[in-house]
Amino acid sequence: MKILRLLSLPFLFAFVSCASAQKTPNNSAPLEVGVAEADITPPVGYRMAGYFDERFSTGIHDPLKAKAMVFKQGNVKMALVFCDLVQVTLPISDNARDRAAQLCDIPKENIAILATHSHTGPLFNDVRGTFFNDDAIAEYGKDPHQTIEYPPYAADQIVKALRQANAKLAPSQLRVGIAQQDYLPFNRRSIMKNGKVGWNVGANNPNFVRDAGPVDHDVGIVEVLHGEKPVGGLTVFAMHADTTGGTDFSADYPYWLQQTLRKVLGPDYVSAFGAGTCGNLNQINHHKVEDFKSSAASERYGKMVGQTVLNALPNLETLNKPSIAARSKIIVADLQKTTPQEIADARKKVRLIGTDEVDFYSKVRLVKALDLERRGAQLPLEVQAFRLSDDTALVTLPAEIFVEFGLDIKKRSPFKNTMVMSIANDRPCYIPTIEGFKQGSYEAINSRVVPGTGERLADTAVQLLKELK
Length: 469
Fold this sequence. Notes:
Elements: H1 9-18, E1 31-39, E2 59-60, E3 65-73, E4 76-83, H2 90-104, E5 111-115, H3 127-140, H4 150-167, E6 170-171, E7 173-180, E8 186-187, E9 189-192, E10 197-199, E11 208-211, E12 218-226, E13 229-237, E14 248-249, H5 253-265, E15 270-275, E16 281-282, H6 295-312, E17 317-318, E18 322-334, H7 340-349, H8 360-375, E19 378-389, E20 392-396, E21 400-401, H9 403-412, E22 417-421, E23 430-431, H10 434-439, H11 442-445, H12 453-468
Parallel strand pairs: 2-14, 4-5, 13-15, 20-22, 21-23
Antiparallel strand pairs: 1-3, 1-6, 3-4, 7-12, 7-17, 8-16, 9-10, 9-11, 12-13, 18-19, 19-20
């Protein structure tokens, strides 16, 4: 399986220039919204993402979905698609956005394709998958676990969801609000007694001093009604979707969020989930011993978030004067440098990825070196902002980005309700704060970009929000 190259920078600058050619919003036109979903589950037996070791799927707990929301007001259209995947990569997002732009008459820069960050989905567009695939072909003549090319299949299904949502456009009401989930999430980085920053240090660790960063308890809610009927909605929450484990395909806790909402709102309710800025947040409580990764744990967490949404529904604000618009900007980020010796060492040890012969952080570093080799010196990172009304806006950011950036964007936003989502259109691993890079630990070690990149993304998001206001 060949690794697809990233877009050339001249093409990207052409794309940036076209982003300024926005149609003028017609605030007096009625708002139309369409929602739909398509199945993106690969065949059972396909390799699974989420961790460094090789895992093969053995079943389907719940089908993976791409959930699309298309908005239209006058001659302005925009769309978001939420995929039950650990990542969305440029080969998928560019393919799907280009085609949907033509088929649905939505400007490419007005389309965002996001991952929910489920750790129980397929492995694709990744140096680990490439190695496992090549190794299987060398041994068997073909790869028995890769029975389809997943990226083009996923792109096809994303386009299908967008086309179906576009066909279902109908006069709609939006109801929005930001609730609070008092228990979840937790910051998974900890200041320890030795002064260092630990990662997932466990409950009641005697060396734990304090959390190394903040959390975000916001639950952003957008509900779509056709007449009096709720047909779908978006929940934005900043917590890693890594609560299930095992080898069954699953959307993780967003599935149980969906099931909780469907019991009240109807069996066909399309429950989209946007992963907030959760690069350093998860479900593990450092002060309480509890089951934090299992099917039962996933159900518990999903129901908790779902109940938070249900409790908030009566208090949501109806957007009586919707005014949709979108903005997009690409920044070109510098990537960290890797030495020829690091690359040579990674190639030598790549066969140890799926074994216990090297420790966890060695696996992290060798995968990082091979990934940086294929990416080159720079990487395009896109920031998007979507206005729903004069009070409500959505922001999308690439990568697994630290919660500090989401909190900062919301604090500086000119909109009363601002919902910030991550892992949009691409996922170049982690983006810590400058302080997070200095502290070190897993996310800093596993980052691809240079320090300061996240701050640039946050500043860009605030700039776009101010333009939309």
